[in-house]
Amino acid sequence: MLRYTWTLNMTWLVNSAAHMWGNKPYDRHINPSENKCVSFVALGEGWHNYHHVFPWDYKTAELGDYSANPTTAFIDFFAKIGWAYDLKTVSVEMIKKRAEKTGDGSHPVWGWGDKDIQKQDIDAAVVINKKDD
Q1: DSSP states of 41-109 as a string?
Q2: Quick one: which of 89, 111, 109 has its CA closest to 101?
Q3: How many angstroms separate the CA atoms of 96 and 94, rounded?
Q4: Residue 58 and residue 72: Cα distance in Å, rounded?
Q5: How far is 13 from 110, CA to CA, in rounded Å?
Q6: 34: β partners
Q7: CA angle, 100 as apex, 48 and 76 as ends, to 5°?
Q8: What pLDDT, in 10s, does the model give residues 39-49?
Q9: Is the dihedral of CA 40, 112, 110, 56 positive or negative?
Q10: What is the pTM (predicted TM-score) of this model?
Q11: Is-contact 33 78, C-beta < 8 A?
């Protein structure tokens, strides 16, 4: 009984934390958020903003490696041996369009070093406490 109660409470805690704290890079208008701590504790299940925006993506996260999403590695392993199939994912173009349209600005499509940043924006930026390279 204690194990069952503990498991239910931990499941609800993960879901609650991922809906309360974190960034919303894909849709700032919904409650779920991206939470690295939850993802670490729950083996990759803390990327709720992505999951709610793209529910058909088997990965539940837009990550290029398995460091923060071991569940995807598990599924990919079984796909390689033929036990998992018809896996659907989202294109990079669709992710970028959605992040630009409804995201909160925390997605890496924005930011310093982006290939689309214009030279005049770089020149006009104020860099405080610049580290010499």
Answers
A1: HTTS--BHHHHHHSTT-TTSS--SSSTT-HHHHHHHHHHHTTSS-------HHHHHHHHHHH--S-STT
A2: 109
A3: 5
A4: 8
A5: 31
A6: 23, 47
A7: 45
A8: 887 777 778 88
A9: negative
A10: 0.70
A11: no
Are the CB atoms for 34 and 50 separated by under 8 Å? yes
At 42, list the tokens. Answer: 């729950």
Read off the pLDDT of residues 69-80 as tens digits, 9 standing for 90 and up.
Answer: 788 889 889 999
Residue recorded with tokens 């701590």: 37
How many C-beta atoms surround the C-beta of residue 52 within 10 A?
18
Beta partners for residue 23, in sequence order: 34
- Reading the block at residue 23, the tokens are 């960034």
Closest by CA position to 67, among listed 43, 50, 84, 91: 43
Amino acid identity, position 26: Y
